[in-house]
Amino acid sequence: MSENQNLLAEQRRALILDDVRKRGGVRVNELTRKLSVSDMTIRRDLDALARQGVIEKVHGGAVPVVEASTHEPGFEAKSTLELSAKEDIARAAAAMAAPGSAIALSGGTTTFALARHLLEVPGLTVVTNSVRVADVFHGAQRPTSAGGARAGAGAATVVLTGGVRTPSDSLVGPVADRAIGSLHFDVLFLGVHGISVEAGLSTPNLAEAETNRRFVRAARRVVVVADHTKWGTVGLSSFAALDEVDAFVTDAGLPVAARQEIEEHLPGLVVAGGPPGE
């Protein structure tokens, strides 16, 4: 059987993961026929997905990993996943930030990637509850060894909310909630643990859910930035319905069927990078 050159490894693995989640399990021989690749290629794909912790390999195939709705991975664990997808999303989302506007960035590894692209947008006022995001802007403003500012530095005024730190390096709780509640943003770029039709936007952290609610209320426009693996995931606490979202920026790993379902409930779907999903 010849290798299918039309699908990149990440796209193929996204399709496999979608199959596993929808059907509750897959077999290697089924995947080789469906994707027109070798048995060895499928086994490598399953090994990669298992290392990411999103599937469990079983004899002859794989089944989904069932995580508790309260499970919250740390920033470092999440930062190694879907790197190219997050870069595609960040690049597309950065184009939605107008020079001189007031924006908010929630915590998360995708908003962290977005922050690096926003360094090139002049005159921003950035409100964030993410220690990591604040560090991106702070690092850009530090002088270089030559004594000057780094490229793009000085463009943004950054407000860090304060609060109690979560495993994902977000600041949440009453201090963060009060700070956010007194402000108004042109655009909120919101990372999420999970997004679905039934549960809307959700997180496993109750305090973070309340902080995110404050963000959503304070924003004129809400843009969710999340890779395709977040679709269909549900955390312990929902903090916004899909009709509160103005745009969802995701990556090309999202299957066509999921895109059609999202477009029925959201006014704006942006699929960043790569060819259309299958």
Mean pLDDT: 84
Count up the helices.
10
Category by helix and strand content: alpha/beta
Radius of gyration: 19 Å
Order of helices and strands: HEHHEEHHEHEHEEEHEEEHEEEHE
According to DSSP, the number of beta strands is 15
Helix content bin = 25-40%
How large is the share of residues in beta strands?
Answer: 15-25%
Enumerate the spans where pLDDT stays under 50 for 5 or more consecutive residues: 1-6
Strand order of the largest sheet: 6-5-4-9-12-14-15
Distance between the termini: 20 Å
- What spatial form do the alpha-carbon principal axes imply? elongated
Summarize the biggest pleated sheet: 7 strands, parallel
InterPro entries: Carb_Metab_HTH_regulators, DeoR-like_C, DeoR_HTH, NagB/RpiA_transferase-like, Tscrpt_reg_HTH_DeoR_CS, WH-like_DNA-bd_sf, WH_DNA-bd_sf
Domain HTH deoR-type: 9-64
Protein name: DeoR/GlpR family DNA-binding transcription regulator
GO molecular function: DNA binding
